[in-house]
Every structure is written in structure tokens, then in C-alpha cells.
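User: When convenient, might I ask for sequence and C-alpha cells for a protein?

AI:
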Amino acid sequence: MLRDGAAGPEVLLGLKKTGFGIGKIVGLGGHVEEGETDAQAACREVHEEAGMVVLEEDLRDAGLIEFVFPARPEWNMSTRLFTARRWIGDPVESEEIIPEWFLVSALPLERMWQDAEHWLPAALGGEAVAAVITLNDDNQTVASAEYSSRGV
């Protein structure tokens, strides 16, 4: 979710309260359920995590990231990125997330997964990113990041 704030563009992120990534600031989203498209899952997750309604037609493709966890291959995942500038409702805290608006120019990267610095600014700047992020054996820090982007 992106909006124009008084001090510049803002993005809605959230403090993860449970599960994978607990204690980190993360983007809204999650797993794709059986029978769902990536876009349908994004809309459902935004509603579950922040109580807001986003329509599929209001999603903008922001790219794809492949995460590789050599020490825990069962964690490997592909993540579709979307942004939206239209939605219904205001963000509310859920069991999983405490949502908060952040200036795009002052992202809380030190409180996020380390990989975010490699792709998040570009995705929020209107580029469609494609990245392969390989994590170290600690499953936290980035061993390598192969990245490309294209304007959309």
C-alpha cells in the first residue's frame, strides 16, 4: 500500500507479531492458498493482516523474488510483489501484524529482513524487480543478491 503523505510517499508495513519473521518489520502478505492466484492471495492477506480491502485490479506488479535458504531448503520460496494506491478502509492491528505507515525515503531497513535493502526501494519506486536472494547459514543475513529491474 502506497499513499502520498505530507512529507512524501509512504508505504504501509507491519511489525510481525507471530510466526516466520516475528519481531521484524515486513510487507503485508503471505502464502498462496490452494486454488488462489498470487493476486487473490495478496488481497486476502492484506485484509487478514490489516483489515483493508484491495481489489485485484488495483494491484500493480512490482516483481518476483526467489529466496534460497541453503541451510533450510524447505524454506525456499518465490514471492510475488505487488503495490496498490487504492483500497477501502484504514489499517488496523491484527493477531499477526501491527501496521504502520513509513516514509519511502526513510524505510526502517535496520528492523527488516536484511534482503529488503536489495529490492524494496526499487519496488516502491515504481520498478518491477527480479531477484534471487541467497541467505547465509544463519537464515537471516544475505550471502548474495542477484538483482535486476525494469520500469513499469
